[in-house]
Design brief:
504 residues; alpha/beta; ten-stranded mixed beta sheet; two-stranded antiparallel ribbon
């Protein structure tokens, strides 16, 4: 789903993170190995297609490739006033590079993608010494042009630079296959194996570029991401763990507002409680599964109403935004299900109506399977449900409550999130802890106590939410909650968590 959000305008920082809630999915065939890449025709996964090149920025009439702390601060403030108030004053100069690398699509096919590399530098202890690497996963965008190396035009990239790179983290931010000039004709949306592999391949290419860029890697590896990226970050952590070799040692991870409990997410959506952006999320999940040979349909018309079925495959990401997709009749504004489709959870009637996307008989088949094979009946074994319906199988197969994080892990979100429900964070934390993982659960929408280690991030969120409510009302808080309010402060909490972990 695509999110449109701004941080409390009274703080002056507008955050437009195209982020999404979804879940990971595995490929239908045999995925390429993570630890020992299988050679593809003429390529090797993670190898460099095009060497890392600097991204020039126009600043005060000049083209520069390295922004000093003061210039960076001015750049951030000119792009969005208040950024340094929220993220902190830059401590390091930052240079941005773009690298292209070989990876795989959802069916294991050879393709390529690109990643941004943010390099901190300077004389300060937090800038000039060997630095930790943060592998950052971005949120969903409907635009195939989405590029994390474009800090002039990409707000999420700018925020990652301000929160992490400007404070001394080397940031590697993959764009994912299917975005930013990748030749892959679709995005393997929330495909656990493909997206984990894509992250790993980007990291390999970045590491291969470090010497030429003069980057000194301390050997400490951190993984994080927001919304879809929160899921992808943990999928990457899992992929590295399962590789079982010395190539990857994750020091700590932070999943931020991610849809880890994908099976429950889907069951609640089809059960009568869809979420904002569901008319985009469902087609993206289905499309990724179909490309990965999950056989979710023989013809799109089995799932979608006739007015949408002919053009729904590979529709997003593309070149159109939500408004244009709706105006052109390619997607409905909000009606996922028909007006008479039952059940309907109170408070979710806006997702039922005329011009709906999903066929009622398809929803009925999903619900019949849910009744016969309910998941989430046990907090410690939520996926012991063996569904028979193809989409439910796909969701269960990629629900992240199926491994144990070996590295310390933070899970941060807000309990009133209307996009990615908080149960994704809370149930994942319960499951991971039940398996012995070192997991910290953080509700950023919680009044901080005097000795709260995340007091600053929580207080910032509370202040921003209160100011936005006073200025524009509850509806603005609801609209901006996920990406505009929670995102920057969970990112700050992740930075605090990483700094504390690295200090030990």
């Amino acid at each position: 789903m695509r999110l449109f959000s701004t941080l409390g305008r009274s703080l002056g920082l507008g955050i437009l993170l195209a982020a999404c809630g979804g879940g990971g999915t595995t490929t239908g065939g045999t995925p390429q190995g993570v630890g020992n890449p299988t050679p593809l025709p003429g390529t090797v996964r993670g190898s460099i297609v095009a060497q890392a090149s600097p991204v020039a920025l126009g600043v005060a009439g000049s083209s520069v490739t390295t922004l000093s702390p003061s210039v960076l601060a001015g750049f951030l403030e000119s792009a969005q006033k208040g950024t340094t108030v929220v993220a902190g004053e830059p401590q390091c100069a930052v240079s941005v590079y773009r690298v292209r690398y070989n990876t795989v699509g959802g069916a294991g096919e050879s393709t390529e993608a690109s990643a941004a590399i943010f390099v901190p530098s300077g004389s300060g202890a937090s800038c000039g010494n060997s630095r930790p690497v943060l592998l950052y996963a971005h949120g969903t965008s409907l635009q195939k042009s989405y590029d994390m190396a474009d800090i002039a035009g990409n707000t999420e990239a700018r925020l990652a630079a301000a929160v992490f790179a400007a404070q001394g983290f080397i940031v590697v931010a993959p764009n994912y296959a299917g975005y930013a000039g990748s030749s892959l004709g679709y995005h393997a949306y929330l495909d656990r194996v493909q997206q984990g592999a894509d992250m790993v391949d980007a990291l390999r290419a970045a590491r291969a570029s470090f010497t030429a860029l003069g980057v000194r890697d301390s050997g400490k590896l951190l993984v994080s991401g927001y919304s879809q990226g929160g899921y992808v970050a943990l999928a990457a952590q899992r992929a590295m763990q399962e590789a079982g070799n010395a190539e990857f040692t994750v020091t700590a991870a932070a999943g931020l507002s991610g849809p880890y409990a994908l099976a429950r997410f889907g069951d609640e959506l089809f059960g009568g409680a869809p979420r904002n952006g569901a008319t985009v999320i469902v087609p993206m999940i289905v499309n990724a599964g179909q490309h990965a040979s999950a056989a979710l349909y023989a013809n799109p018309a089995e799932i979608y109403e006739a007015r949408y079925a002919a053009t729904i495959a590979d529709l997003v990401p593309g070149t159109l935004g939500t408004g244009a997709l709706v105006d052109q009749g390619k997607l409905p504004p909000s009606a996922l299900f028909a007006a008479d489709s039952m059940p309907q959870t109170a408070g979710y009637t806006q997702y039922f109506g005329a011009g709906n996307l999903i066929r009622s008989d398809y929803r009925a088949a999903y619900l019949a399977d849910l009744a016969a094979h309910p998941c989430d009946t046990s907090a410690t074994a939520p996926l012991s449900c063996a569904p028979a319906q193809a989409l439910r199988k796909w969701l269960v197969r990629n629900d992240l409550r199926s491994y144990q994080p070996a590295a310390p892990t933070l899970l941060c979100a807000g309990h009133d999130d209307p996009i990615v429900p908080y149960f994704n964070t809370s149930t994942a934390a319960v499951y991971f802890r039940g398996r012995g993982a070192n997991v910290t659960e953080l509700d950023i929408d919680d009044t901080p106590t005097l000795n709260d280690p995340y007091r600053t991030a929580k207080a910032g969120f509370v202040a921003a939410r209160s100011l936005l409510k006073a200025a524009e009302g509850d509806a603005a808080v609801q609209t901006n909650y996920h990406a505009g309010l929670v995102a920057p402060f969970c990112m700050i909490a992740a930075r605090d968590y990483f700094q504390k972990t690295l200090a030990f």
